[in-house]
Each structure stands twice: as C-alpha cells, then as structure tokens.
Design the sequence.
C-alpha cells in the first residue's frame, strides 16, 4: 500500500529520533486504509489488518482469536495523530456487526516503547501494554558466584514431560496478568517444544537442584537480515532469542532463574549471537523486574484492548 512519501519520511525520522536502536521503519503493508487530518491540515494514515485464528493455531497462546491490528503513520504529529487514527479505528469497528467484535477479540498496536507522546493517546483510548520486546545489547559479564547445588544442562527428548510441565506454568501465571490462559495450552506448546528437544537448535536448558528440574529456558538463534520479519523489529545481526523462561512455582526468587540465564547468555553468545531479545509482559510483576535486572530494556511495546469493542 502506498502512502505519501513526505509522511513516510517523517514517520521514519520520528522512529530514528525516538530510539536509535530501532531498525528503519518498514513501508506500509497491505491492508485497509484509514485516513485523518490534524488541526494544521497534516494528513495521517493508518493501515488496518485483521487476523482470525482457530483454536489449534499457536498464536492463540498470546493472541485474541480475532485481532484488529493498526499500523499508524503519523509523522511528527505526535499525540494528536495517534489519537485521530484510534478515533478512526473506533468508527470502523462501530460499523461492524456485534458478532464481529465478540469477547475473544482485540485491537492491537505495536509501537516504539520510548514514544511517550503516543503512549498518552493509547492510554486515553483504553489500550494497555500487554507485551514488550526487550533487548539486551551488552555481552555476558562475570556471573555471580554459582550456587554449588544448582546445575544447568541442555535438555533432550527424555525431558519432554518435565519441560512441558514447566512451560505450561508460564501461562498459568501470565494468564492472571496478561493474556488469558487457553484450555489447550499444552497442546499448543507441545509440538515446538518436542522438536526443540530433539534438535541442537533451538536449544532448551534446565536448571536442576539435587537432580530435580527447577527452571527452564527455551531459546533459539535468530538472524535479522534485510527483508525478513526479524529485521522489522531488530537491528541487523545474529540475535539470541529467549522464547520462554520459567521457574517452578514455589521456587521463584531462589536464584534458579538467575543461574540459568547466566549460563544461557554465555551459550547464546558462544553460538554467535552478539545481542539477545525476548518478549515479556510489562504487567507481570515478576518478569518485568527480573528481565530489567538481567540487562534488558523495552524496544517495542504491544498496546492492546480486549474486546475490540472496548476501544474508547
């Protein structure tokens, strides 16, 4: 989809000014176009995409079944431009039949985390920060003295049952503070976890005490190269991706996650990653503190309101 070249140039300039780590903003994708004009006559544009997922689709782990995602192009109009496009989206949703914006629906905008002017508009329209892409750009430093009772090892096919149980525990907790846990979470997690355990990459690590698993990290290596999906989120290069990290309920705060990630960060860098990234829930009182202490900071934030009809 084409938009005015001055608007796209202003959009890219805004991203570059907001956060130097952001990759160059991608041109508009295909979708439904929403247009508005600021008080001074400046035109702003949004691209609206709709995605519908079936119960067995993996994105259902974190997504509403019916998602309306807005891609705003607001140039240097700041809060006003974002506000105008959210108003346009609200009007678009009101034209839908009630059944089309049911309980398992959402409005979503993924936006640079450091753009405070846009945050003002998101909050005013009822969106909340449910997910963030956190990045860690420093190489692993000296680890804290290891607890001699904790060991970390690569997991294999024989660890599938315990690994799945730990992976599920993530969603038991995040179901309270972010996306609601799905009844078929184990079925959605199982295939990719089983595949990871059977291969060298992606990698799964377990932290153990006295032979009992206390924490799990499911990770991978991701190359951000021009034209691929990763390059729309991250600067070019080889990244370590931290997909899922969880400590056994009842053992949280005991240092198992820290010991595990000290090991995992070294392994990811040994595999060629110069930086690492992950998704975490800003509303999660455990992960939002843990990951910042691990050296991560937000790059992109996913703002969301559920159901879609709750957009103000």
Sequence:
């Amino acid at each position: 989809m084409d938009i005015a070249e001055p608007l796209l140039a202003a959009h890219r300039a805004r991203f570059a000014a907001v956060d130097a780590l952001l990759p160059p903003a991608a041109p508009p994708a295909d979708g439904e176009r929403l247009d508005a004009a600021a008080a001074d006559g400046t035109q702003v544009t949004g691209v609206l995409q709709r995605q519908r997922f079936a119960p067995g689709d993996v994105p259902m782990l974190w997504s509403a079944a019916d998602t309306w995602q807005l891609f705003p192009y607001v140039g240097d109009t700041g809060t006003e431009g974002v506000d105008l496009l959210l108003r346009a989206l609200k009007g678009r949703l009101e034209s839908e039949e009630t059944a089309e914006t049911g309980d398992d629906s959402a409005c979503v905008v993924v936006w640079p985390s450091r753009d405070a002017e846009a945050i003002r508009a998101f909050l005013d329209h009822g969106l909340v920060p449910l997910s963030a892409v956190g990045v860690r750009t420093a190489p692993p430093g000296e680890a804290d003295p290891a607890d001699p009772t904790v060991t970390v090892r690569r997991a294999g096919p024989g660890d599938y049952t315990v690994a799945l149980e730990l992976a599920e525990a993530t969603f038991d907790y995040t179901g309270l503070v972010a996306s609601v846990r799905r009844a078929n979470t184990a079925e959605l997690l199982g295939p990719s976890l089983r595949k990871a355990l059977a291969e060298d990459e992606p990698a799964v690590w377990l932290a153990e005490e006295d032979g009992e698993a206390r924490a799990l990290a499911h990770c991978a290596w991701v190359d951000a190269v021009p034209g691929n999906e990763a390059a729309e989120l991250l600067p070019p290069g080889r990244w370590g991706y931290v997909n899922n990290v969880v400590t056994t309920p009842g053992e949280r705060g005991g240092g198992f996650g820290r010991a595990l990630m000290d090991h995992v960060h070294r392994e990811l860098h040994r595999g060629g990653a110069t930086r690492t990234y992950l998704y975490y829930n800003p509303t999660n009182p455990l992960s939002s503190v843990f990951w910042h202490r691990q050296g991560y900071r937000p790059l992109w934030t996913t703002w969301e309101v559920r159901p879609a009809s709750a957009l103000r």
Observations:
- The longest helix spans residues 160-177.
- The domain at 5-134+303-310 is CATH 3.40.630 (Aminopeptidase).
